[in-house]
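Continuing from the previous page...

OK, I double-checked the sequence for Major facilitator superfamily (MFS) profile domain-containing protein against my notes and this is the correct one:
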Amino acid sequence: MAIFKRMSLKQGNTTRTNAAELSLRASIYPLCLVTILFFLWGFSYGLLDTLNKHFQVSLGINRARSAGLQAAYFGAYPLASLGHANWILRHYGFKPVFIWGLCLYGVGALVAWPCILHRSFGGFCAAIFIIGNGLGSLETAANPYITICGPPRYAELRINISQAFNGVGTVIAPVLGSYVFFKNTESGANASLTNVQWVYLAIAVFVFSLAIVFYLSPIPEITDADMAFQAEETHAGTDNVSFSKQYRLFHAAFAQFCYTGPQVAIAGYFINYVTETRPNTSASLAAQFLAGAQGAFAMGRFTGVGIMKFVKPRWVFLFYLTGCIVFISPAITQRGNTGMAMLYITLFFESICFPTIVALGMRGLGKYSKRGSGVIVGGVCGGAIVPPILGAVADMHNSTAIAMSVPLGFFIVAWTYPLCVNFVDYYRIPADRLGEATIGVKNSGHDEEGVRGEPEKVGMEHAESGVAMREVGKM
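Thanks. Re-ran it with the corrected sequence; updated structure tokens here:
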């Protein structure tokens, strides 16, 4: 009974702990455990992109209707991030949300089995909606957890490293699809759909097992009081005004909406684009090309992390999103290998945008961090809106290439956020102050075990950090 008491899922949210001041060493285990979740939804997302084309072939549905998969998947995100998952996060903590999300994911995967068996596209969309609720719950907790678990100055690096494993998942899924879903299609649609059901059964077994691991693992719980402490110590807090006036947060959520929609749409219709514009390209070969494009996406994240060690994340973010706009444009008019290469480069530059919006949008939220994370993750519902629009435009013009003008328009609107973060003081100063914070790093008042240092030393460092922050404000 003592063991289960120590593993209680009920956590307070107003008590200060040392979780906000964890050193890098103390945060390694929980970060590694949570990073597995990023791989999971990367794999699920990549699987969805492949199934989009697979259902068009197997069930004879058009491009606009196949976008129902993305609509069901990403349409569930606001329900989770602004509803049930965010309520659990604020009242119970991160760990219960991780377990809740994994259980929903497992249930959705089990529901998918009979739907696939009976060739029910509507039923499978319902299963994907349940899976989307599970993954939306995981993202609601995992993104802010990675951002705030450990030294604040490395938040963007941590979340981009974890999200890089999301990219690895998106690479593996299309490869699996090319060899499993599109293999031996001459044997009939039923045979190929049977292969899909076994994949989802394996997913269910794995995520239920992972839920047990999370329950048994002692991971630090980070409270609102801890986040308020971080914001106060770095003088980056904006939680002295009401939540409804956190305008930077709402702009970040809007940017997330406008960015995520194009990312999902481009990947979801990549196979259509390649089979239409590149002569003699089968769906199976196009799925392998998609795996290569997702490889470029993963490489972009690792590259972005490397650059962020030397350049402020806000500048890297501006450069990468600008690259998305520059390279998606020629994909509209170019064909063959040239057009496909433009999409490869676009996916490379998409890589760091989502996690960096999360990290920058949460800067300085303090006690509103958990609520704010739900709002930003809710912006992912753009993935439910943009793909159907792209599919409808593609059906209208009988060209997926022309329809790539849809994500271009949304990218341009999302571009307003990195411009503000870099050139408007109201956005820039809170981001830079936390980026310069010494909490959790060597000689910051805590040793490597996270134990509080000498008061005199802490006070001296706070004074020095105050000078540094005033200098930042003058930039």
